[in-house]
Amino acid sequence: HYFIQSNLSLIMLESSEVESDCPLPSEYTTEINAQYMQSLEEPYTYQTLVAGKEIRDQMIEAMNMWLKVDEPVLQKIKDMVKILHESSLLIDDIQDSSKMRRGQPAAYLIYGISQVINIANLKYFEAGKIAQELDAIPTHHKSEPSQKATVIFHESMIALHIGQGLDIHWRDHNICPSVEEYVDMVVKKTGGLMMLSYDLLYLFRTKDTLDYKTGYDFLVLFSKYFQIRDDFCNLWDVRYAANKSYCEDLTEGKFSWVIIHGILRENSKGTSRIMSILKQHTTSDDLKKFCCQVLESLGVKKDTLSYLETLEKELTQQIADLGGNDQFSRIVKALSPSKIEIDRATC
Fold it and tell me: Which of 3, 63, 90, 135 could serve as 120's disulfide partner, Cβ 3.0–4.6 Å?
């Protein structure tokens, strides 16, 4: 028997009556899908129609050169990470008030904030269902199902949201983090999906050629390289400005790698131009250009490029030490600081 409490009376219903009148969740979902899912998913579809860098998909393929996961499992991991990445960008554009994504208006500007948040959250749950599917697949190290994929999924998503939360907290409260705090945030936020991919690949590996800690440390280094490069490009790469907007991090008020180093160097000189500009969330291109010139005069631009070159060499050496990986080598080379098309107008 089922009991339903109303403000008028206590009604007892036979369980058979409830079962006949109420569709199962799966039946209800199917009915909704047929009628509305295309409309609900339109913001997600709109964004994915324009291809991104696909760096995470390439990284999964590269890591799999070491771990040799079976193709069906590999595809599920790719699908999960693709969904999570695209969904996180939908949310990220709202949180950062970004106007452009991949050279077109951000999805929320077209479809509205509420609809975009809803589909992004829905997609997160779809990715979670893939983790449940992976739970039922035995690994090569155990004959029974792993039951660990969902745990890995949840832990990775928690870390990613903590990293994103720190980034937002510093921005909204005008708190300049230390370099160490920033790197820790990057490993959680930028490295979040990379670590998720790696943990799942390692769980279902068929080869033991890579020690877990060694692979993890490599991805920490790569996460730093990827994000610091992105921070640099946000201010000085011509192609980045075309796809997003000019010096978007300054409008957002974001404490990026280059901004943090600029503020620290100004603090030592007793000036605060960069911090003052950052607080304004300026949309003035002239003021942004001035800020970039201040950063360059402090040596931040030159030193960041030099540091990226050092990180590139370290990654290249680590790949060689791990026995080589042509796909990872191509990824690192494609991201080389020598490939950045620097905006000379800010020089």
Answer: 90
Alpha-carbon distance values, 155 to 128, 163, 200, 216 (Å): 12, 12, 12, 15
Which tens digits make up the pLDDT trace of 30-47?
Answer: 566 667 888 899 999 999
| DSSP count for the chain of H helices, then E strands | 18, 4
Please check whether residue 120 is in contact with residue 114, taking contact to mean a CB–CB distance below 8 angstroms: no
CA distance 290 to 273: 10
Model pLDDT for residues 140-167, shown as the tens digit of each residue: 776 667 689 999 999 999 999 999 999 9
CA–CA gap between residue 222 and residue 300 (Å, rounded): 21
CA atoms within 13 A on the CB side of 50: 13
Q: Cβ distance 146 to 138 under 8 Å?
A: yes
Determine phi and psi for 335, rounding to 5 degrees: -95, 5
Q: What SS3 state is found at 327? A: helix
Contact assessment for residue 197 and residue 77, using Cβ atoms and an 8 Å cutoff: yes
The Cα–Cα gap between 278 and 177 comes to: 14
